[in-house]
Specification:
This protein is mostly helical and 135 residues long. It contains 4 helices and no strands.
């Protein structure tokens, strides 16, 4: 699988996950839809990590961002379940929910940065990098 494609699919899944979270927040969907889609995003992130790990040569920055996404997804899951666990304390629950949302945007930003790096890395391994402009 081309690494750029893996990152695009993961980024699209993350965008859908944020949208589903908004629908859950405003009562249009049940939280289980957000949890199920979160598991799908986690699986996609693991597949993307495996794809980057198998690249020869392995780009260090891209690998670091991919590992960061995996770790951040675990943090995202913990904050998400913390929101559900503290629903009796509205102030605490709302604070953790905001942290959960901000972390989702950080995940999306890492995914977006990874898309650019992955596209460049796949072009470099294929030998199709355009020449750099003369300075």
């Amino acid at each position: 699988m081309q690494i750029g494609l893996a990152y695009r699919i993961t980024g699209i899944a993350l965008a859908i996950q944020v949208a589903i979270g908004g629908l859950v927040t405003f009562g249009f969907l049940d939280a289980s839809a957000h949890i199920v889609w979160g598991v799908i995003v986690g699986v996609l992130a693991v597949l993307t990590l495996a794809t980057v790990a198998m690249m020869k040569p392995r780009p260090k920055r891209l690998f670091g961002i991919t590992v960061g996404i995996g770790v951040d997804i675990l943090i995202q899951a913990l904050t998400g379940f913390a929101v559900l666990g503290t629903s009796s304390n509205t102030t605490l629950s709302n604070g953790i929910a905001w942290l959960h949302l901000l972390n989702a945007f950080a995940l999306f930003a890492m995914s977006f940065a990874g898309m650019g790096m992955a596209t460049m890395a796949s072009r470099m391994t294929q030998g199709t990098v355009p020449p750099s402009p003369a300075v």
